Amino acid sequence: MDTTMCQTPGNGIKKIVFVDLDGTIIDYTGQPFPGVPEAIGKLKSRGVDVILATGRMLGSAVRHVRKLGLSSPVIAYNGALVADVETGKWLLHRSLASSLAADIIAAATGEEATVMCFINDRYLTNKMDDKVKAYEERSQVSALVISDLHRAVDAPPSKVLVVCGTRKQFERVRSVLQNGFGTSIHMAESRTGYLEVLARGVTKASAALWVCSRLKIDIESAAAFGDNMNDLELLSSVGFAGAMESAPAALKEAAQMTVSSPERGGLAEALLSLLQSKV
């Protein structure tokens, strides 16, 4: 076990912890890293809320919230949605305009990318391929395939996800969307080849700020852990941040801790370290 700390958490910064899901508290087979459920339980027993902040759709995220004993509410769709886990009530929803989403889907489809659109927690896609099948397996949600997907946007989507097979295609799609819609959207890479497209200003950080305001907690009294670039704003906004060892260099630079060997309990140790100086 090797948890590298650049800075020890200080007093008063651990009232709430925001955690990413895939690659952070669970591995890419869907299993929690060793010791994580127990660490979450200990944090909660000391009055520290542990809030999931994920790019996943709500239905998929809630299953993990309940399985891992995480706190409510849950942040889904990379910050576009905050929902009460117990009641299912949507507390905050910052969606893409329907017409804007349709244009984004058409542009990405023109680049031969796999496009997924999430409307009212429904999962729509423009084609069935290995990328969609992998997403279905991971999320345990079946996709509805609509070939003319841009014509089927009948309500404001929470997000559009564009999945690319090569780095060249990813950079091309990102450039096309930036040039065409850059002032109206926010984009982030959530894992290799996954381009998340959200309404302007929507990030995990914006949702975390809303949750903290609702709970009357200063964001400086929060901690966060993540593993990819869709976590950058969140890790940059909290009082203490940890980046997984697999994270891109830019994310590690935004964090005060690099969490090594999660498969050997490194993340559990990092979470429990937040209790060492709690007042």
Please give a handful of descriptors for the protein shown.
279 residues; alpha/beta; 6-stranded mixed β-sheet; 15 strands; 33% helix; globular; disordered N terminus
Protein topology:
Elements (H helix, E strand, L loop, with lengths): L2 E3 L10 E4 L16 H10 L3 E4 L5 H11 L5 E3 L4 E3 L6 E4 L4 H13 L3 E6 L2 E4 L4 H10 L4 E2 L13 E5 L3 H15 L3 E7 L2 E6 L4 H12 L6 E5 L5 H6 L2 E5 L4 H6 L2 E3 L6 H8 L6
Parallel strand pairs: 2-3, 2-13, 8-9, 13-14, 14-15
Antiparallel strand pairs: 1-15, 4-5, 5-6, 7-8, 7-10, 10-12, 11-12
Helix pairs in contact: 1-9, 3-5
Regions with pLDDT < 50 over 5+ consecutive residues? 1-11
Instruction: Find the count of extended strands (DSSP E, 2+ residues).
Output: 15
Strand content: 15-25%
Structural class: alpha/beta
- End-to-end CA span: 27 Å
Largest sheet: 6 strands, mixed
